[in-house]
Each structure stands twice: as structure tokens, then as C-alpha cells.
Amino acid sequence: xxxxxxxxxLLLALIGxxxxxxxxxxxxxxxGTRWIARTVAGRTVPEDVxxxxxxxxxxxxxxxxxxxxYTGPIAVIDGRLVIGPLAMTxxxxxxxxxxxxxxxxxxxxxxxxLARDNSALVLFASxxxxxxxxxxxxx
Length: 139
Description:
- The chain is α+β, with helices and mostly antiparallel strands.
- The chain is 23% helix and 39% strand.
- The longest helix has 19 residues, at 2-20.
């Protein structure tokens, strides 16, 4: 009986530790990288609109959302990408900046996964066409 109680106690302790562990890591190789959107929800981003994904450190995402700056957590939980909640500046912007900001924030809130497609990073979100980002390069 002691062995059963000890084994059960050990299993419960392990289950409790697993549940308390932090969420999974960022997709491999993204920490410290910066990406600029070419499409958001399948729509081509105009030249005067800046939408970006930046991974300043493990577990964090930041960038421009079309009009405002944002920052927040990012994790993989149960195989699904989770972005946010996002903290954002609150500037009012005209279209098309405001339109692309709405599309991007919706994509972040409904994110399912990030995948590499050659040199691009693709954000898949439920209910939207994918958003495609290219590596940010200073001219």
C-alpha cells in the first residue's frame, strides 16, 4: 500500500509541476529577428503602411501594427500559437493605416501558427487569409 501511495503522490506532484511549467518556446530561430509585412490577411500592404513582427527576446513580440506600436507575450500552447494580450499606443490614423492595423490585430488575436516559407515568415490566423512577412533589412 505504501508503494501505491508513494507512486500516486509522485505522479500527482509531476502532473502539478507540468501544469505549472511556463508555455512552450517561440518557433525555432525567431528570437532577435525583425520582419516586415508584405501582406496582411491576404491583402498587399501599401508602401506608406508599416506592419512588423519583431521578436526582441524569447517569449515577447513587438512591432508596428499599421499605425501604432505594440508589445506583448508570444507562446506556443498545446501546439497553437498564442499572441497577446497586446499593449498598444493609441494614435488615431486614417485609412489605409487604420484598416491594416485592424486586420493585423485580428490576425494576432486569432493566431494559430507561424511557418517559414522559403525566406518568408507566414502567420496563419483563423478566419483570415495568411499574413506574409519578409526579413527586415536596413537599406
